[in-house]
Amino acid sequence: MGETCNRRQDARGVSFVTMAEGLRTCGEKGGTKPWAVRCVPLHMIAMTLLFLTLLLGLALVPLGLPGLWVMLGATLVYWIVVPAGSIGGITFGVLAALVVVAEVLEFTISGRYARKYGGSRRAGWGAIVGGIVGAVIGVPLPIIGSMVGAFAGAFAGALVAELTVARETRGEPIRVATGALIGRVVAAATKVAFGMAMVVWVMGAVLVGRLSGNG
Questions:
Q1: Are 75 and 164 in the same domain?
Q2: Is the dihedral of CA 69, 71, 185, 108 positive or negative?
Q3: Given this model, what pLDDT does residue 215 score?
Q4: Whole-Å CA distances, 44 to 1, 25, 56, 205, 215
Q5: pTM metric for this prediction
Q6: Using CA atoms in the order 197, 193, 140, 173, what is the torsion angle rounded to 10 degrees?
């Protein structure tokens, strides 16, 4: 894209540029000519919005909100708006796979930790189901309600499930539930790591594309 802008003047003689005409965002620039403007290329606007949205999505992940899906959606929008912006089918497919794997790990890790802390298979499933239900229902707390609900749900699910096992074969219920809670924390950290990898992957692909002259 070129760096020039199509200019018009309103009734007051003030210069302005429309997105439809120049696909640019322009602001006043000091100079000898009152109509002189500074233009920002569309791809820079798109890259900035993409990066900010990725950071927003990453910030939502530890809160128990669907931040990875926000990041995936932002990448898809960028791919559509800037088709030559180095985001292709392979990159998007890898990101989608990372999101699915992260979502699966988020709930299964708590079940594994419940088993690791002496729980039964039933306690493991209780931690998984409890974590999902807790994340969906949440608790009446602003912003962090879903995260707290997931932690509490994993703990309660493992505890209740382990208590239904015969006394002779079950582990210590509180210890098992604590293991499920620890697993849920580990799962959240793992999901954040996946989100960070997505940010690096996407922005790396975009920047490499810009440096090579694509997009």
A1: yes
A2: positive
A3: 53
A4: 11, 10, 18, 14, 10
A5: 0.70
A6: 150
